[in-house]
Amino acid sequence: MRALVIGGAGAAGSRIVDELGRRGHEATVASRRPTASPGFSICLDASDVESVSAAAAGVDVVVSATRPAPGHEADVDDVTVSIAAAADRVGVRLVVVGGAAPLRVPGTGGTALEDPAFVPVAIRPIAAASVRQLELLRASGRGVDWVYLAPAADFAPGEVRGRYRRHVGDEAGAELVVAEDGSSQISMEDHALAVCDEIERPTVVRRVISVGW
Predict the structure, then answer these.
(1) Which run of H or E residues covers position 126?
(2) pTM exceeds 0.70 for this model
(3) Three-class secondary structure of residue 100 per DSSP
(4) Are 133 and 170 within 8 A, CB to CB?
(5) Which fold has domain 2-212?
(6) Measured between alpha carbons, how far is 110 from 112 in angstroms, rounded to an integer?
(7) Using CA atoms, how far apart are residues 78 and 80, in angstroms rounded to an integer?
């Protein structure tokens, strides 16, 4: 299988690239700047639909693992619209590494964005950008085959447990995966397992899947 991983040089994206390689798939790493990533790498302006379409031609899946720089959270809008339009144009599945902010907190009726226990004030700008990202995907053309893989609230490189739990959402969204102790965690390494499992064996279309331990 051939995959275009946009943002593949970043923290989450690079782990997806590594996991794809371990499974014998071919990944092209696309990033905003030149990268020393192993394998085939390209520079790509993800906000340019023509460039994304050209890069996506001939692949089996596009993975969007982009993350805006601090202060540039508004870039999420153009990038999301561009990548979705390109995936639609070339007719490939789009797997998006999202954020926890849009997820419902079990038993509260609210979202993670509204709960400082899961989204501290300091990270609200980037968290709010992930909410817009999901809204824009939902507003994309009905022909866009996307899935939004939302990690737990605490999402960072770290422990490899080799397992995860997931919640498949409905049209209203998905629930945050919360452990018995009230924490919501997943390492980027184990989230990459969930992403690659969904790439290899698609389960939903135009839905949110939340992932956690």
Answers:
(1) helix 124-139
(2) yes
(3) coil
(4) no
(5) Rossmann fold (3.40.50)
(6) 7
(7) 6
